[in-house]
């Protein structure tokens, strides 16, 4: 008799709290995008190089920007057909178009180093960033991103490793470890599919 009771026993009803606690497992890229947008970032997915160029044009028009700062010569191919003046210096008053080292899935942060920033602190740069990255740059954690930098630059590990953690120029970070500094930026991410 107890055997039949077990078979035909009603399923336990789940409470609302138990349902809320169930976690959805997202892929690395979905998790990054979810966390990035939650922090206020503007995300533009690109399937091909022409999409990157078109999105840059749209960003410039939307914000009425006629000049951008570009220090990475590899990024010039994306703006060569766009009508925009370029500045190869760090100018706080014009948007900064740059690449990055990695995109951190667990928290939606973007990691930079001296290859992009030289010796400049994020707080001293423009409040407006356009960042170019590829899907292969998405990593799970901060530890993975730092390991990636160590492997990529083996004998000449760069300094000035800094993440942007908030993507609204007016957002402040209450973390006491960041007291007196801010790395909040109005940021557009152009993510090119390369996998």
Automatic annotation (TrEMBL):
InterPro entries: NagB/RpiA_transferase-like. It comes from the Bacteria. This is LUD domain-containing protein. It comes from Urechidicola vernalis.
């Amino acid at each position: 008799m107890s055997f039949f009771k077990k078979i035909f026993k009603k399923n336990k009803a789940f409470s609302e709290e138990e349902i809320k606690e169930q976690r959805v497992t997202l892929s690395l890229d979905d998790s990054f995008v979810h966390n990035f947008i939650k922090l206020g970032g503007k995300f533009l997915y690109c399937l091909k190089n022409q999409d990157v160029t078109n999105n840059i044009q749209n960003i410039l028009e939307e914000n009425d920007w006629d000049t951008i700062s570009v220090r990475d010569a590899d990024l010039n191919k994306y703006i060569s057909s766009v009508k925009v003046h370029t500045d190869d210096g760090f100018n706080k008053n014009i948007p900064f178009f740059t690449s990055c080292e990695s995109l951190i899935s667990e928290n939606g942060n973007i990691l930079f180093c001296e290859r992009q920033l030289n010796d400049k602190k994020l707080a001293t740069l423009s409040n407006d960033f356009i960042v170019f990255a590829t899907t292969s740059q998405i990593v799970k954690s901060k530890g993975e991103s730092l390991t990636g930098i160590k492997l990529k630059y083996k004998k000449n590990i760069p300094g000035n490793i800094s993440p942007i953690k908030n993507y609204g120029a007016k957002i402040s970070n209450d973390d006491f470890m960041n007291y007196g500094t801010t790395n909040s930026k109005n940021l557009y991410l152009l993510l090119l599919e390369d996998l």
